[in-house]
Specification:
The chain contains eight helices and 20 strands. The longest helix has 17 residues. The protein is of the alpha+beta class and 379 residues long. Strands 6-7-8-5-9-12-11-10 form an eight-stranded mixed beta sheet, with helices on one face.
Length: 379
């Protein structure tokens, strides 16, 4: 278990750069002795408290700034061993010699302690199996689709650089979120029509495709390697809804589906329409570890059942035609509605208010691909 040394000090504001230089020099010793991470935080918003506060704790004057710092160790044993070596190093290592690297603050007023973590929450650095990591639009007219979506969403488009196909990368203001691909004649011969498809992360594409078929699904496109992208396959669940499974070459966290916070231009919700919700739950639960987390009665439409995979990622609802629908976040739902209609698309449902005060609507683009939008009503 990690172990934390915490410090609060008062540093003359005029000595800010001297403090940074001192910390960079001295803290290199702690890193060599096994520290995992060191943060030195310069006070920016340190209010006065009613009974006590950071400033009073270290008797900071008006000319001083409070600095809050900590050292993260892999465990207490590593920390104790490092501290045991400090006294000897102060006599031999110039970085620890107060005459060579003097403290630009009053060390007598420093408060310090060692702490054992009891609660640790950390944003993931990679995606886990079963996460939504990408979205792809297959369309009969890539140029027209780009023009349409560029008016509806704050997206920009760039060529992927793949010489053998017209594949365009769609970027929101913060991250890449999707791809746009023209349906080839061969794909059309096999029945491909305009559609948005999600990508799910898996640890092993080949093992996943084998499991999909064992559980009653099918493989629509055999596993293949895409240079500098990863290994992927297109499958369909037992009810017929198509999707991709992929092991990315890069393990960098994908935020195409904004699971951490609302991000304009990113996917905000994932909805599975299926003629057999019970069967779908069995399949996705066993394949990807998804769990049902409550539901909402939609009257004649049936029950709208929420999917949890870490956080809430979407829902399952009854429908005759099996399909996935991705909902993308827009800044203003009414402006987006007008853009859909002006661009030749159709709004087939909504905008309807949803829990949380936002609005959602279901749309079809000019080429026939269904998609959803979510956003606030500003008017």
């Amino acid at each position: 278990m990690t172990y934390i040394d915490g410090f609060v000090i008062a540093v003359p504001t005029a000595n800010r750069q001297k403090f940074i230089d001192h910390a960079l020099t001295g803290n290199s010793v702690f890193m060599e002795l096994g520290a995992l991470r060191i943060l030195e935080c310069w006070g920016d918003d340190v209010p006065d408290g009613k009974q006590t506060d950071f400033r009073r704790a270290v008797a900071a004057t008006a000319e001083e700034t409070v600095v809050f710092s900590w050292i993260e160790w892999p465990d207490k044993a590593t920390r104790d061993a490092a501290m045991g070596r400090m006294e000897a190093m102060m006599a031999t290592d110039p970085r620890m010699n107060p005459e060579i690297n003097p403290m630009p603050f009053d060390g007598a007023r420093m408060i310090y302690g060692g702490f054992t973590p009891v609660v640790t929450l950390e944003a993931p650095a990679t995606n886990k199996a079963g996460d939504f990591i990408w979205y792809e639009l297959l369309t009969t007219d890539a140029a027209a689709a780009q023009a349409f979506y560029g008016q509806v969403l704050p997206w920009t488009f760039a060529d992927s650089g793949q010489a053998e196909m017209d594949y365009r990368i769609i970027s929101a203001p913060e991250h890449d979120v999707a791809g746009l691909m023209a349906i080839t004649p061969e794909m059309a011969e096999h029945g491909a029509t305009p559609v948005w498809l999600p990508y799910l992360a898996v640890d092993d594409v080949d093992a996943t495709t084998a499991a999909v078929t064992q559980k009653g699904g099918s493989v629509q496109m055999a596993a293949m390697d895409v240079p500098m992208v990863g290994r992927m396959a297109m499958v369909a669940d037992p009810q017929g809804a198509p999707l991709y499974v992929m092991t990315p070459e890069s393990r960098k966290l994908s935020l195409a589906f904004a699971s951490d916070r609302p991000r304009v231009g990113h996917a905000a919700w994932n909805e599975l329409h299926t003629p057999d919700p019970a069967g779908a739950w069995t399949f996705y639960g066993e394949m990807f570890g998804w769990a049902k987390d409550g539901d909402m009665d939609m009257g004649p439409l049936g029950r709208y059942e929420f999917i949890r995979h870490g956080g809430m990622i979407g829902a399952v609802m009854p429908a005759e035609q099996p399909a996935w629908t991705a909902y993308f976040r827009v800044p203003d739902i009414d402006v987006a509605k007008a853009a859909v209609e002006a661009g030749g698309g159709q709004v087939v449902q909504g905008p309807d208010e949803i829990p949380g005060g936002e609005f959602s609507m279901n749309c079809v683009d000019p080429q026939g691909a269904a998609f959803g939008l979510i956003g606030h009503r500003k008017g």
